[in-house]
Amino acid sequence: MMAFYPDIKLVHMGAAMSSGTLFALRALSLLAGLRWPRAAAVRYLSYSIDTVLLTGAMMLLTILPAGMFANGWLVAKIVFLVAYVAIGIAAFRPARGHRARAVLVVAALLCFLQVYGIARAHDPWGWLLWLGG
After folding, report:
1. Helix H or strand E encompassing 62
2. Secondary structure of 71-112 in the HEC alphabet?
3. Which residues contact 91 (CB under 8 A, 6 or more apart)?
4. How far from 68 is each of 16, 38, 77, CA to CA, in Å?
5. What span, in angstroms and rounded, lies between the C-alpha atoms of 23 and 49?
6. Total of domains in the chain
């Protein structure tokens, strides 16, 4: 399986960037009052991208040595990923007011950025490592 590592990682990274980009576009469009972010085709595209993302993550988890995750970065990444998904779902609920939706969108995007920072640093602190010096 290690022979496929570079390809799986590339697909996983592409899916991660696609997921974040699509979420940001949908959320900002929804805040602007547009209807397309709630269309079934867009939702199903989002589900498909996230399925590829999670499948790639599970494949990488199974082929990489366990010692690579010893400092807890993967657990922190998963916690922020769950928060990103939960907050994102809450942001797209029709009953939300404009201000509440905006706060939820910002919170979800911050979680996504932290997931990315943790993945890049392989450290549970993610971007906070660089902020702290």
Report:
1. helix 40-63
2. CCHHHHHHHHHHHHHHHHHHHCCCCCCHHHHHHHHHHHHHHH
3. 27, 30, 101, 104, 105, 108
4. 20, 39, 14
5. 11
6. 1
Q: Which of 87, 19, 7, 93 is nearest to 50 (CA)?
A: 19
pLDDT digits (tens, 9 = 90+) for 61-113: 888 888 888 888 888 998 999 999 999 999 999 888 999 999 999 999 999 99
Per-residue tokens: 49: 């991208």
**Phi, psi torsion values for 107, nearest 5 degrees:** -65, -45
Question: What is this structure's pTM?
Answer: 0.87
Structural domain boundaries, residue 83? 2-132
